Amino acid sequence: MSSPSPRAQEAREAVASRLRDMRRDAGITGRELAARCRWSESKSSRIEHAKTPPSDADIRAWCDACEVPEQADDLIAANRQADSMYVQWKRLERTGLKRLQESGVPLYAQTRQFHVYCSNVVPGFFQTPGYANALLTSIAQFRGTPDDVTDAVKARMDRSHVIREGDHRFAVLIEESVLRYRIGSAEVMAAQLGHLLSVMALPSVSLGILPFTAPRQAWPLETFTVFDRQRVHVETLAAAIKETQPSDVALYLKAFGNLKDIAAFGSEARSLISAAIDAAG
Fold first, then answer.
1. Phi, psi (5° rounding) for residue 87?
2. How far apart are the C-alpha atoms of 177 and 273, rounded to whole Å?
3. Closest by alpha carbon to 125, among 76, 84, 69, 166?
4. Element (DSSP H or E) covering residue 231
5. pLDDT tens digit string along 21-77?
6. What's the pLDDT tens digit per position in 209-235?
7. How far from chain centre, in Å, is Cα 85?
8. First vs last Cα of the chain: how many Å apart?
9. Deepest in the core among 98, 146, 189, 194, taking most CB within 10 A?
10. What phi, psi does 241 have (nearest 5°)?
């Protein structure tokens, strides 16, 4: 099945093309390769046409059948990279939410400059325990993941220390609607919004709010994070998408710049948050 991420599909097609060329260089047909690998001819065709992503074992069997086993490791690495560009949440969260929170710690620790745009919820590293608990509970119930919300909230809070520790800088843009979406109780929302007022005072943080009333040339986008201008993580309902192609990273940074141009900062941003606190009560 084709990946919904064009970049991931291109990477998979590149792997498939290399496997097809390998078979042709070996001078064997798809039927003969299938016989050597002891699988159906249709499977060979699906792999060659990037319809079915090959497993590590499939690639090793393919290389062995073409008598070039030394090429297997490189192809496996390329295939894994393509596979990691688009990963469904149900795969990432199959053992619960805690491990997903912990898996991001190394990347967060090594990143110096974050560019973050959120159109739906408060960014994870700005969340209070109460807000995170309400949000992660909703996610676990919606996706039917194992219930480890308490541990996942603790892991998220531990990961959030990055905003106060080390040499990190955070340029963050939040849609005003995020301030108004009720995640948890009124008390939880008021505490979360109050926390936003405190974190925006940190020297490492630049927080902008995109007002409802701002004239827009840049429409609301999906939530994304750019890490050190080198990679982008995009969150959709179904999956997490990673982009490392320089042109794609540049596109997200351009979008961030356009959104920043209409954002409110400083006292104006604090006024929008304070108004949302009053409304939450």
1. -125, 125
2. 11
3. 166
4. strand 231-235
5. 999 999 999 999 999 999 999 999 999 998 888 999 999 999 999 999 999 988 887
6. 999 999 988 889 999 999 999 999 998
7. 9
8. 48
9. 189
10. -115, 135
Q: What tens digit of pLDDT does each residue of 22-38 get?
A: 999 999 999 999 999 99
What per-residue string of b and e applies to 187-210 under the rule 16 or more CB within 10 Å gives b?
Answer: ebbbbbbebbeebbeeeebbbbbb
Q: In the numeric block, which tokens belong to residue 105?
A: 């710690």
Starting at the edge strand found earlier in the chain, the sheet holding 231-235 runs 86-88, 239-243, 231-235, 224-227, 113-118, 169-175, 205-210
Of 111, 257, 245, 251, nearest in space to 170 by CA: 111
CA-CA distance, 165 to 202, in Å (whole number)? 11
**pLDDT tens profile 85-144:** 777 777 778 888 998 888 888 999 999 999 999 999 999 999 999 999 999 999 999 989
Q: CA 119 → CA 127, 137, 170, 225, distances in Å?
A: 15, 20, 16, 12
In the block, tokens 């805690």 appear at 98
